[in-house]
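Sample intake sheet
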Amino acid sequence: MFGTWINQADILKVDQNERSEAPPAWAESTLRELTPFVLNRYPRRQRLESLLAQTNGLEADQVLVTNGSDEAIQYLFQSLAVNQRIILPLPTFGIYQDQIRRWPVDAVVIPPLAGLRLNMDATIDSIKQRDLVIIVRPNNPTGEMVGDNQMNRLWRVCHERGARLLLDEAYTDFCGTSWIDRVTKGSPLMVLRTFSKAYGLAGMRVGYAAADALWLNQLRGRCMPYNVSTPALMLAERGLEADAQRDVANYTKSVRANRMALCRLLDDLKIPYVPSEANFVMIQLGLERAQFFRSAMAHQNVAVRMFDRPELVGWVRVSIPLNIERLLHAVKMALSPQLVCLDVDGCLVDVRTSFEQAIVEAVRRLGGGEVTREEIVAKRRLGGYNDDWVLTHALLIDRGCSVPMALVRKTCDAIYWGTGDCLGTAANETPLLEQETREYLCSRATLSLVTGRSRRELGPAIELLGLEPLIPAATIDSVSNGKPDPEGILMMMQKTNCQRAWMVGDNVDDIAAAVAAGAIPIGVGSDLGDALMAAGAIYVLDDINKIRSIL
């Protein structure tokens, strides 16, 4: 389960903008060196506040260390007057939206422009006397960097109209630009910073606010006296030393390079995203594809972030790790398969009046009486019945009919193919795959068939579907072991020289084979939806033509 405190070494956690792989070496060594006295003495944040003030050219009373920057935000809202006007452009850090709902303030929420860009013109135009304007720069969740011209214009208007500006700089280490030097005596500016991101101390919860002392004292008076633990304070102090600063600089440089690598891949895939100056990228996929993407990434032990806020539906945020190759491979597997393996029966071809009718008729002829479709579906739920004639044999055994498998096959073949002038049930088959979907699939990936049909049975289906006669196919008589064995999928991957594969099928054996082959397992059809998910499918389509919504 994601998000627990238990070691999750195999999970690439890129859903919360942390320093995901491991804490920095300087932090680990500092923890090892802590003496027991840090446990039985109350913490004092004043030393860290003085160090931060020196680092940023401020006075000590202009800095307040808090339990993450979230605590400073909470105290700020507590200090506001009833009906205080707040200008909040969207999208923004979720805690600000939570706070304006929680407190009796007069919030002016500015909807975003296309592509989730902040509407700074509307934001600035909305400012009145004594307003509080909240800007996150680089923005969270998009990474957008409000330009200098707009920031300077915002700053000028705030001064002219007696408004205050809260500037959240949680991600400023990744862009190298800060406004903290504008915090002066009497300044209407408060800057928030954190040790959670570039410093890798998210679990320690250390942040700070910098502002005019009189403004900051409104927060300080609400602050608990021992709000940050001694180990957290000591690690933050250690983070200000020269070697730790070099580590932060090297880390943020690597993140910026890796961010560019991810953006280049998204450009190649023609996937829209928000240009970012933070340690994450916001990707636009649309609701269905976003849900599929999250599931496909989770299948590869990569955790990404989706949002339920209305303005963010259909977007996915991906934090930038140091191990960028693993992330890039997972993104390509989820968004750009080289090979799409397709089951035939129940996926591409409707076989309810062909193979399934042959099952029903064969059981009747061989003394087993009537069979319902529910019984057939129930067998398929169990797995191991990718071959319909094997399923027929199992139904006969359930009824106490001891019939040799060879006779079952002979009977089923006669019903399916027909005899003499009598047409078999094979003539009843109709395609499920639409021409538009077929053409779309062919334009996006190499297609292959991995089926429980024999080569003879596959021929008419290929013609029915309008597929190329030489389409790569693994049939039941071309493999040593049929599904759920992954042999057929692996054979297709080798034959097409493709490493990134999806497997789409309506049977639990299709899903089991996909999982074993390392392919992305996708279910199709409503009959076995829950069973397909239980078998390992990451997504179940209502029908094969819905695949266009995720590919």
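Comment: Residues 1-7 have pLDDT under 50 and may be disordered. The chain is about 40% helix and 15% strand.
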